[in-house]
Amino acid sequence: MEHLDDATRTELEAAAFRRLLRHLNEHKEVQNIDLMILADFCRNCLSKWLVTAAEERGAELDYETAREFVYGMPYREWKEKYQQEATPEQLAAYEARQAEKRQAGESS
What we know:
Elements: H1 6-26, H2 32-39, H3 43-56, H4 63-71, H5 75-82, H6 88-107
Helix pairs in contact: 2-6, 3-4
């Protein structure tokens, strides 16, 4: 994508991000813990990244506003409607993922 000018590249990146949010919204059955296990990020991470990006640019964006943008509704509402209790298998897989990260960090 180096052949694109900065404005076009930014527009494409923004469009891809919006599509990712739509995709996650269309697949509410995909739980945050599933994302954390498989990809090491979740909807909350996206929200935090938005807040960090805003801070880096001198813009104000609080975490709850960012989460409402990412979730498409207030987080509390999304959690009540769509968040399922993590299964013992999911929790074990998440802990194994975290242990792998800690071990990789120690060997670096």
